[in-house]
Amino acid sequence: MLVPVSLCIGTLIIICITHWVYRWRNPRCNGKLPPGSMGFPFIGETHRFFTPTTSSDIPPFMKERMERYIWNMVLSLVGPESLKQKLLPHIVHGVKRNLLLWGNQDTVDLKEAVSKMIFELTARKLISYEYDPTKPSENLRECFAAFNEGLISFPLDIPGTAYHKCLQCSDLKSGSITRLTRRGRKHAMKILKAMLQERRKIPKSCPEDFFDHVLDELKNEGTKLTEAIGLDLMFLLLFASLKTTSISTTFANKLLTENPAVLEELTEEKHDAIIRSRKNEDAQLTWKEYKSTKFTIKVINESVRLANIVPGVFRKALKDVHIKGYTIPAGWAVMLCIPSVHLNPSEYKDPLEFNPHRWDGVELNGGTKDFMAFGAGQRFCVGTDFAKLQMAVFLHFLVTKYKWKTIKGGDITRIPGVTFPNGFHIKISEKNT
Ligand code: HEM
């Protein structure tokens, strides 16, 4: 008892001293910070996970051009055209297959099951990755799990800490399963690098995934893309898409479980607008049908507002910024706290209530100052449409074909990202059984 208490007190003292030193070290700060802000210098550390050392050599105008090029590349994979033409049938197939599988099990931990399903689909489409159970050391999903656990943690890089596990590089050849689950960013990068090298040997005739696009670009003379940046981007893309979509989907399911009236209305929309109007009830979900599901989109908006999957986004002040009598000194990292926007009672009446109808008549094309679950402005999430489509397809098949009841778990903790510490175990069965 004494040891954990002393450790906590010790950690708090270190945090306070670091905070104090940093705050007063800079005279322009006048010892003041805007209310509610966190002046911890290490808050800005997340860039270390993503920025390859080479990128600092790139002039800003080039960086901008390259970013635009890269996002175009990403959009060619997950933008509306690709979703409509290529990805929708794959998502439908993946969701139907998994639901059928879960329906035959006594209980399913939805958090794990959805995460696996989303990972399989996303990793297959973005980098043609298929997990081979005979090679547990190449389990990319486990790497991302370890990475996620320590992403926002005290930056103490010694064995045993969440931060260390998040960064860790393990020997590819060794390891039992328990050791494997502890591998983070560096191990994931090793796997991605090996895949890229493999792809170099057997190139594809036309670009199909992110590897192909990166390899194509690397061949161009004068390109500013390097292999390190390309790999870093692959990591970022997978990281940005995996946990977010799977936790949002699980969260939406939990909210529906707790709000039967909303579930009923959603089911009704699906039946009326889609299935009953079809000639063949079992036909695939089409793009037009997906676009017609207005209430589903409201349920998704409301779920991601309450889920606050991304608890904060970071920016760096490039010059001194004066705001409401305070100064944010140049070079400081700023954290924008998204939940404080989404739970603001002056903008959202009864902000903790799950009420999809608050989105009636609201057309969302991007982020606003009051809704930024997918960010806002220049850095708006490039995978928004992809995530929404996956969630909508999942909800469609779940509510039309299945019923479920909670078995155990479902409690939510924020550390600060949303987690289900005891999972969310449900029993799923087909409606007509
Ligand atoms: C429910 C699911 C998702 C949520 C809640 C979400 C949330 C966000 C947020 C808040 C940002 C802005 C970060 C910032 O401003 O610093 C962001 C950026 C980003 N997201 Fe998502 N995201 C989701 C799904 C996805 C998916 C499926 C992909 C990829 C296929 C993706 C790829 C990205 C990328 C690459 C960025 C960086 C954009 C840039 O910096 O220009 N996200 N996301």
UniProtKB/TrEMBL annotation:
Its cofactor is heme. Heme binds at residue 381. SUPFAM superfamilies: Cytochrome P450. InterPro entries: Cyt_P450, Cyt_P450_CS, Cyt_P450_E_grp-I, Cyt_P450_sf. GO terms for biological process: brassinosteroid biosynthetic process; brassinosteroid homeostasis; isoquinoline alkaloid biosynthetic process; sterol metabolic process. The keyword NADP does not apply. GO terms for molecular function: heme binding; iron ion binding; monooxygenase activity; oxidoreductase activity, acting on paired donors, with incorporation or reduction of molecular oxygen. Belongs to the cytochrome P450 family. PANTHER family: CYTOCHROME P450 26, CYTOCHROME P450, FAMILY 87, SUBFAMILY A, POLYPEPTIDE 2. This is Cytochrome P450.
